[in-house]
Every structure is written in C-alpha cells, then in structure tokens.
Amino acid sequence: MKVVIFTDGAARGNPDGPGGYGAVIRIRNEKGGILEKELSGGYPHTTNNRMELMGVIAALEEIGRLGEPCEGLIYSDSRYVVDAFLKNWITNWKKNGWVTASKTPVKNQDLWMRLLDAIAPHRMNFRWVKGHADHPENERCDRLATSAADKIGWSLDDTVQPFTQASEWISLTRAGDDAAAAGDPAAVSSDVVSNDPALKTARSSLPAAKAAGRPARTAASSAIPVPPADPSLGQEPPQTIRIRYLSDKIEKLQPPTNSANWIDLRAAEDVELKKGDFRLISLGVAMKLPEGYEAHIVPRSSTYKNFGIIQANHHGVVDNAYCGDGDLWRMPVIAMRDTQIHVNDRICQFRIERRQPDIIFEEVDHLDSEDRGGFGSTGVQ
C-alpha cells in the first residue's frame, strides 16, 4: 500500500515538561481508495526531540498493524529526525555501537531502536518541511501535539501516566470516485488488509462521506495526497524512482538533502587500480526512471582528490529505457595514480533531468540575427 505520514512533536518547558506528539496517516489501496487516521499522545516529563520521534514511531506502528508492507513518505519539521536518515547518522550510530562521532552516547537510543524496528518492514523516505509556515498538515499535527501536551499538563504527581489516542479510519474517497464507480462504495477499502477493527468502521463511513457533500475529485486526484509544491521556490511534486539493489553490500540510497539535489552513488565492489587502468565500477543498482526523465551521472567534487580517478565519459547519461532488472549502473573511470576503492565509497552522484523535447531542424538561408563573435570573444571580466 502507498502511505503518506505527517508528524510533529511538542514539549512545554523542554527538557522536562509535559509533551505530546501528533500524526496524520493517509493510505491508498490498489483501487485508489484513500483512508486517513489521526494519532496523538501525551507524556508528563519528556523532551521535544523524544516527542518528534514518538510521532514517527506511533504512525509506523499503526500502519504495521495493517499487516502489509507499505511504501511512501514521512514528513516532519524535525531536522533531528529527518537528518538522522538522510545524512546516515543512524547508520553510523549503529556501526559505532550507539556512540556519536564525538564519542558520547547517542541520546534517545531506546526510541531510535524502536523506530528502526517499526520502519523495517516498509519502504519509507523522509522529507523535511518548515514548521509553523502554514503547511496545512504540519499545522494540524502541531495542534494534535500541543493539545496532547496540554491535556496531560504540568504535574508534581509521579504517578501520572502517558496516554495515547487515535481517531477512526475515515474515508477521503467519495462513492462517485472512479475507484468505486463499478460497485458498492464500500469496495473502495475492500482490498485494504483489515485486521485492524477500525478499518471496518471506515468502510461503513463511506456513504456518509457522500452525504457530507465533499467536493468532487478528479481521476488525477485519486493519488495519495501529499503537500503541494511551492512554485515560488521552484519546487515540483516528488518523483518516484523504482530501484532494485543488485548488491547487499552498499547502503541504501537516500533522497537528496543538498541544495543542488544531487544523490550520492557508491562503489559496490572493492577495486584496485594501477595508474592508467580503465574500469567500469559497479554502483550496485538498477533503476526505472520516471517517464520523460533521464539521469545525469558525474563525479563528486572530492572524487579525484580522494581516489585519483576521473570519469571516462566526464558526464554520464542514463535514459529511462535502461530499466531492466539486470541494467546495472556503472561508472567508467581512468586511474590517474595507483589507487584503491572500497565498497560503499562515494565515488559519484546523479540527478534526474527532463528529457530534451523532440527536435525538428528547419533549414533556412538566413538566421535573421546578428553575429555575436567567435569563442572567447567576450573577454575575461
């Protein structure tokens, strides 16, 4: 199933005051039916970071009760949570025995381990959103979190216990939608694994959604709702890249976090090269790019300094026809000195670009433009 999760955490009097978390889950089944659920919880003595983590954990554990692996996105305004995955902090913490780079114990290890257990069955990516910036779902989660913190309140009573609460699953799909046009409106959720009793309630609520007069939804809007892109920031809706790992030695790819949107690629084999050697280095992945896009592969800025290699084709291009299970991505390199490259070394990076539009050449006698001058004719300043 496809899923989008929005989460937030809050604490009153951080680091030892009351706190709460909030989460909104949206799932879409194979027929396009969309269900939504709200979660929240409050703790008497906690921190903001713990509540940010608990929002994600609670949502992942909730979809885990559906008994089916999910794929989707987790939106959070916590850099602490998002960067732990996008910048591979959590991978390094695990490798180092839950000790940070500064040799101090990782804080909130209990919740990080619980989060890893909850996310393991699923294929989820993290996205950061700016908090308190009129992002509808983030504001909604903030209200859930702060309300939960206020509900548990300040107390000197050490017997006060945390609480959790959850809404019923509510249908966001009208009976008239394409997904249910063929029959009973309850069929929208019929293929959702329903070992959670709340899902049965959601099915019975579908006719009520029609009566409530929700705005009509187009066929295109049957996709799972995600936060709208902000055109003023040059943002486009997220694109999905299907990826098959052909090596179990490399770390999984993460969505880009840098402003240029480049995604690191890693060597999937140990390589020893002598000066002048040529080698196609396995990158351990095959991908199916979105229709109309191609991937551009280039060295990282530190590739030559760290490994003494240059990319033989300087700028590699992978079109979306190269998408079979065995279409392994490789980096063609020439060694400029004796060198060694090891599995998981970051040796190159890629980004996707829209494919050039179809071109028609029109032969003319004149271009009707003035000559600018030859190469290098504009000076040096």
Average pLDDT reading: 81
Number of helices: 8
CATH structural class of the largest domain: Alpha Beta
Instruction: Describe the main β-sheet briefly.
Output: 7 strands, mixed
- Return the CATH architecture of the largest domain: 2-Layer Sandwich
Contiguous uncertain segments of 5+ residues: 175-235
The helix/strand series, from N terminus to C terminus, equals: EEEHEHHHEHEEHHEEEEEEHEEEEE
* CATH fold naming of the largest domain: Nucleotidyltransferase, domain 5
Strand content: 25-35%
Tell me the name of the CATH homologous superfamily of the largest domain.
Ribonuclease H-like superfamily/Ribonuclease H
Structure description:
With 381 residues, the protein is of the alpha+beta class. The chain has 2 domains: 2-220, Nucleotidyltransferase, domain 5; 242-354, Distorted Sandwich (Deoxyuridine 5'-Triphosphate Nucleotidohydrolase, Chain A). The chain is 21% helix and 28% strand. The strands form 5 sheets. Strands 1, 2, 3, 4, 5, 6 and 7 form a 7-stranded mixed β-sheet that branches. Strands 9-18-13-15 form a 4-stranded antiparallel β-sheet. The chain has a 3-stranded antiparallel β-sheet with strand order 11-16-14. β1 (2-11) and β2 (17-28) form a beta hairpin. The longest helix is centred in the first third of the chain and has 17 residues, at 48-64. It is globular, with a radius of gyration of 25 Å. The termini are far apart. The relative contact order is 0.13.
